[in-house]
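ok so I'm stuck.
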Amino acid sequence: MATQTKKPATTLRCGGIKASIWMNAGEKGAFYSASFARPFKDAQGNWKNAASFGPSDLDAISLLAAQAKQWIADHAVR
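replied:
not stuck anymore, here's the structure
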């Protein structure tokens, strides 16, 4: 049996930071959430995601948070 990987509804990017917006199922219906990451390659050349951010990343996080909030509002599950 193949393992299925859930894909984000959309991914927003700003510089080296990305925001992934996920559709989730809850007791009261579907809803969206956002996660933030800084992709990088490890020593073996494999892509990884860091969840910690330095001072130079915070402007991008702020911008992406506002964009993610707007995307979720525009795509609200009704």
